[in-house]
Amino acid sequence: MLVIRRDVCGYCGCCVSVCPQGALELIDAYLSVEGECSSCGVCARACPLGALEVADEV
Amino acid sequence: MKSEYDLLVIGGGPGGALAARTAAEKGLSVGLVEKRPAIGVPVRCAEGVGRDLLEEFMDPDPAWISAEIDRAVLVAPDGYRMALEPSMAGSEVGYVLDRKRFDRELVMQAAAAGAEIQVKTRAVAPIMENGTVAGARIEQNGQVQDVRARVVVAADGVESKFARWCGVDTAVPLGEIETCVQYLMTGIDIDEAATVFYLGNEVAPEGYVWVFPKGPKTANVGIGISGRKSRDGNRPIDYLNRFVKSNFPEGRVVEWIMGGVSVCPPLEKTVADGMLIIGDAARVSDPITGGGIYNAMYTGRLAAQVAAEGIAKGDVSANALMPYDTAWRNSKLGKALERNYRVKEYFITLSDDKLNRLVHSISRLDLSKFSTLEIIKELLRHDPTLLLELRALRDLV
Known about the structure:
The complex is a heterodimer of chains A (58) and B (397).
Chain A: E1 2-4, H1 14-18, E2 24-27, E3 30-33, H2 42-46, E4 52-54
Chain B: E1 4-10, H1 14-25, E2 30-34, E3 48-50, H2 51-55, E4 65-69, E5 71-75, E6 81-84, E7 94-97, H3 99-112, E8 116-119, E9 121-129, E10 132-140, E11 143-154, H4 162-165, E12 177-186, E13 194-198, E14 208-215, E15 218-226, H5 236-247, E16 252-262, E17 271-272, E18 275-277, H6 293-313, H7 318-330, H8 332-347, H9 352-362, H10 372-382, H11 391-394
Parallel strand pairs in B: 1-2, 1-11, 2-8, 5-13, 11-18
Antiparallel strand pairs in B: 3-7, 4-7, 5-6, 9-10, 10-11, 12-15, 12-16, 13-14, 14-15, 17-18
Helix pairs in contact in B: 1-3, 1-6, 6-7, 7-8
């Protein structure tokens, strides 16, 4: 599951551009996961600040 | 917002603004939506643009120019600095813009030409009819309405969601996104007329650090690295903090700017039935420099011209809009993108030793023009020891 650290996110949209599923949506300063996130972690790698993290499902 | 336009533009950056302005000047009814509440902010850009390129579109105005640039300095991994100074001396080679004002100026020009502008307004879905894009579902302040359009221009930047909703895969591979952070710094010692690029795998793997002047003792200090080189502890922010600590410890940061720039080839097809894709959304930013302002403006204007022809003929099919795709690919811009992609693919393989050699070699050249192509040509002519090294690029010149 993708965790967004809102205190770190710079809402730049870099993650949105690399998401293979098109599952990320940025509206102004608010990034959200919509639709079919596969927890691949590509967005977490691309984030310039480290605001995204794939956490293990509990 | 009206319920119908000839042209609906999704995104209010320089590309969208040029598309809107051009179409309105041709007498089309134009609606432009920008999802953010303000045009031009937050900035997602290092703000550099070539002088010749910008002047294709408008006369320079101090109101939105932060600095005039007359040379570029390359800093090799070993610290060796060389200035790229075109021999056409006396004329500045470029500008560092104030994008907050520049973008707003362009959108105001579009408005003056007759385009309707809506901010804090976003497309949430395309309207599709028989496989053709026929408009967009638009949300503004919680209200949703269908807005029909003969042609939609997808100008939604690096995120490029609209074309994706229409079935075009716009995802950028991780290795071909430059993930970037920039500080607007003040109180630093800089050369106010030079853009400076720091190269090297320690400084910025598969990317570079830039220092672009924004005025006295003030500059955009930023970094882009490949997404595949980014990881915890070595993200762009970490590289930038290390760079700033050793180069500008006295500086003060007054703004953080983040963003992504694609350095992949352009989309295979930038038209669909009823839709044109332009600028960053079409992945036409430069694979070497990451520059995209001119590219967006160029494709935006061209898209509007081709859309206007299609609308006049009553045919907005992908076939009818294809001249847009063909024209930009065959333009100087399209050729440069193709060439620079190959040069970039070569550059990212270079060790710091080879980068050092290249920069030392470039420093011995007498460049008449300021371009990647010119540098490669001159290198091949003057440094036979690099022939073998640069063989991958020989057929480009």
